[in-house]
Amino acid sequence: IPLKAELILEIRALKEEKNALILGHNYMEPALYTYVPDERGDSLELSRKAAGTDKPIIVFCGVKFMAETAKILNPSKKVLIPSLEAGCSLAESITAEDVRAIRALLPGVPIVTYVNTYADVKAESDYCCTSGNADRVVKALGGGTVVFLPDQYLASNVAEQLGRRILFLKKEDGGLSPTLYDREGKEAADVRDRSSWEGAVIGWGGRCEVHEKYTVDDVRRIRAQFPDVCVLAHPECPPEVVHEADFAGSTRAMIDYVESTEASRYLLLTECSMGDNIMAAHPEKKMLRLCSVRCPHMNQITLEQTRDALRYEQYEVFVDEQMRERALTAVERMLAL
Ligand code: 13P
Ligand code: SF4
């Protein structure tokens, strides 16, 4: 970290000069996370911070869908992302055309879309949600059928938490199949027979390329070696992995849990920089490392690129105005909750 001190001071000076706000997601690498952002947090917290700022420039140290959400909330501000390569496998898993096709297949069914999607997908949705409020958003809609896009594991975890049935849509060569599938991929309902799916949470096939890597075996092996370990999982992990954990929640909820409990050691089933960041803030906490599971997209955001983002005011995020207004409705409905 000392070797980076000059760079960090340069970023801080540029931030003052440009009157910018720097937001940093909990998955930023330790030197950046610890010394650079004005605000750190999960997707929900950072959306709120983005909505509340009066600074003319926002630098988003996170991935593209997060920076886009900041732009949706702040159309008159300059929103910058330090790298154009910071995507997300969930955001790539669904298009606006897919959402229109789902609405045509299931007219009248509310569509809740995870924040890990691009603005055009949000614009086609009724509600946005994050891992920090997905259960609350679905619950607030009552007990009727809900389409939940695009993370299949988050959809399953939310459905389970709320005691709801989970079914999945499938895209085939000719478009969306009228058949709905269960978690094992077996045919379970038909959209033409409403009684076969009424009241279910209906999901899509997206997955986080980081959280899908964790397995039940990983957890059991660690527990066999360290029976006193406290295991925390992000709800983007497969449901059977979440079952093995002691706690599941958003990145912020996991940090709060570790900070407020006294386990002899912790294992985080999430992007591995977050464990490093907790260790840096709390050297007294023992964090086990299972992984080198680094999100390749979050990994694109470096101190050098954050400095250049401020220095050259790059890379600016743009969202078409009509699309932005429609996406804003879904995001504001979430923030109102
Ligand atoms: P959080 O909203 O929990 O920070 O999650 C964002 C994310 O991308 C997790 O992979
Ligand atoms: Fe997307 Fe997964 Fe990376 Fe989060 S960790 S940004 S969900 S690929």
TrEMBL record:
Question: Its Gene Ontology biological processes?
Answer: 'de novo' NAD+ biosynthetic process from L-aspartate
Keywords (A to Z) from UniProt? 4Fe-4S, Iron, Iron-sulfur, Metal-binding, Pyridine nucleotide biosynthesis, Transferase
Source species of the chain:
Winmispira thermophila (strain ATCC 700085 / DSM 6578 / Z-1203)
Which sequence ranges are marked TM in the entry?
none
Cellular component (GO) terms are: cytosol
Which cofactors are named for this entry?
[4Fe-4S] cluster
Q: Could you tell me which pathway this protein works in?
A: Cofactor biosynthesis; NAD(+) biosynthesis; quinolinate from iminoaspartate: step 1/1
This protein is called what? Quinolinate synthase
